[in-house]
Design goal:
By secondary structure, the chain is of the alpha+beta class. It has one domain. The protein is 26% helix and 27% strand. It has three helices and eight strands. The strands form three sheets. The chain has a three-stranded antiparallel sheet, with helices on one face. The protein has a three-stranded antiparallel sheet with strand order 6-7-8. Helix 1 crosses helix 2. The longest helix has 20 residues. It is globular, with a radius of gyration of 15 Å. The N and C termini lie far apart (36 Å). The C terminus is likely disordered.
């Protein structure tokens, strides 16, 4: 994800790591091997960011512009990354992620932090990057709603 003289923006790097951790949990649909994904992050001449991954075992590649610049906050980058991955998996790989039954969780900002919400009841489930944690809910975010 880096080239000569270039370090990826820290917020985007953290966002990719957080979403990659969450991809291990709450997937419904066909089997997808997400442990060997080769993630891609590009910053274009206009400073807008593209994300995606190369085709891997049991999953096709994808990529596209995020609509955000390299200066986006971690929260913005994590929500946009989660949305992009969720859309790709559901639309092309027939995988519902993350799913807690019959519906998908939604990535959203809560203040400046990225969280997964259950849209049925608008309940905070977990911070993005901590979906696999056994607690399954984030009391800190719920206390501030």
């Amino acid at each position: 994800m880096s080239g000569p003289g270039f370090a990826p923006p820290a917020a985007w790097w953290r966002a990719l790591e957080a979403v990659a951790r969450d991809l291990r949990c709450l997937r419904d649909g066909r089997d997808v091997d997400v442990d060997q994904l080769d993630w891609r992050l590009s910053v274009h001449d206009d400073y807008f960011v593209s994300i995606g991954w190369e085709s891997g075992r049991l999953v096709g590649g994808f990529g596209g512009r995020t609509g955000l610049t390299m200066d986006a906050s971690y929260g913005e980058a994590a929500v946009r990354t989660a949305e992009s991955v969720q859309d790709h998996l559901a639309g092309y790989e027939f995988v519902q992620w993350p799913s807690r039954g019959r519906h998908l969780l939604a990535p959203r900002l809560h203040g400046s932090l990225p969280f997964w919400f259950d849209p049925h009841g608008d309940v905070t489930v977990a911070p993005i990057g901590e979906l696999c944690e056994p607690a399954g809910r984030c009391p800190a975010a719920e206390a501030s709603t």
